[in-house]
Amino acid sequence: MITKKHLIDRFVSYATIDTESDPTSTTTPSTAKQWDLANVLVEELKSIGLEDVTIDANAYIMATLPSNVAHEVPTIGFISHFDTTPDFTGANVKPQIIDAYDGKDIVLNQEQHIILSPDYFEDLKLYKGQTLITTDGTTLLGADDKAGITEIISAMEYLVKHPEIKHGKIRVGFTPDEEIGRGAHKFDVAKFDAKWAYTMDGSQIGELEYENFNAAGAIVTIQGKIVHPGYAKDKMINSMYIAQDFINSLPRLETPEHTSGRDGFFHLYAVDGNVEETKLQYIIRDHDREHFEARKEVMVNLATTLNTQHGREVVSVEINDQYYNMREKIEPVMHIVTIAEEAMKEVGITPLIKPIRGGTDGSQLSYMGLPCPNIFAGGHNFHGRYEYLPVESMMKAVEVIVKIAELTTKYNS
To answer: In this model, does residue 412 exceed pLDDT 70?
Structure first.
């Protein structure tokens, strides 16, 4: 299989290219610097021997590994994104390699006293004795999802060099702007032309996910009335007080910090207000579609109640759906999950099948006609300075991709 050094060198070469996306931009990709890595990936895909390597005007990359079997095999795909989150800086990433991790605190940055500790991040204990890639404490690492890209390219390279491993046609896809929810928006499913695909965008080794949140965004606008405070009696309407009533009327324990598993939530993530007008920005999440619709109705009904109390329309709610639970699209083709599960078992991994408390490109692609479960890429603590990546997990992910390709030759459609 691909050597540890080869994987480390490849990942570091990607991680050190800044590809942070920008939710305020209207272009695709949302930042010009995403092209820097996209162009590198195109050349690398060509250099390892893939065919039909293309990049379109929006930086969506596709490539093909042709089948090496005579009988008909479904075309499958592997997909990852090359942007990193705007939640934390991805500029000037300086990866650190920790060989034979001793299970103790890791000093990320001596000067700033930044420590990656297993006392706080208990998952670190799983990787004692392994090789870890960490940040220097001042940036994120970018394992989400440059680890996935590393694994896909490395697996394709291995299959090219080992034609004795039988596989059908495999399509590879790399996308921009996943971190701001747009990764699948301009993905050409017809051009990709695969029966199904897998995103390599999960976290801990063994993760296999085929259900995720239904998701919506809500903007609540409260209109007040500004009057000189010295003459405000029976005239002023303070929008911030009404906003407080709205916030306090939603279930306090149905928020991200109080929920887990398949629990849904309302999440207030931004407030901008003054007496005249206050805006509340929420995200709404639930795995169950009926509960999801009910949550949206709760917000609309709450606005109606407050408007009735004030005798005029002071509260308006704008809700836009973002993505849906891919389980609805995966369950009719559950063999694609079974193949991935069997691949993990055959390479010595215990599958961890659980719902995603978030979304992936795969959730949107599944509704666009490309069923697309999610597989681990290996990293932990995404989107921040404490992100780390066990190299052995990347090595296993490569093995899983190769094994999925091999097992798919035994499936007839």
So the answer is: no
C-alpha distance from residue 413 to each of 1, 169, 197, 336, 410 (Å): 29, 14, 15, 12, 10
d(CA 72, CA 161) in angstroms, rounded, equals 22
User: What is the Cα–Cα distance from 114 to 91, expressed in whole angstroms?
Assistant: 18
pLDDT tens digits for range 15-27: 999 999 999 999 9
3-state DSSP assignment of residue 163: coil
* Rounded Cα gap, residues 91 and 68, in angstroms: 41
Residues 6+ apart with CB under 8 A from 205: 349, 376, 378, 390, 392, 393, 396, 397
| Residue 83: active-site member | yes
Q: How far apart are the first and last CA of the chain?
A: 29
- Selecting among 136, 151, 177, 178, the annotated active-site residue is 178
Q: Radius of gyration (Cα) for the chain, nearest Å?
A: 24
Length of the chain: 413
CA quadruple 212, 213, 214, 215: dihedral sign: negative
Inter-residue contact 45 to 117 (CB < 8 Å): no
β-strands 214-223, 106-109 pairing = unpaired
Residue 20 falls in the annotated catalytic set = no
The shares of helix, strand and coil residues in the chain, as percent rounded to the nearest 5, are 35, 25, 40
Its pTM stands at 0.89
- Average pLDDT, integer, range 191-216: 96
Catalytic residue, from 18, 22, 44, 83: name it: 83
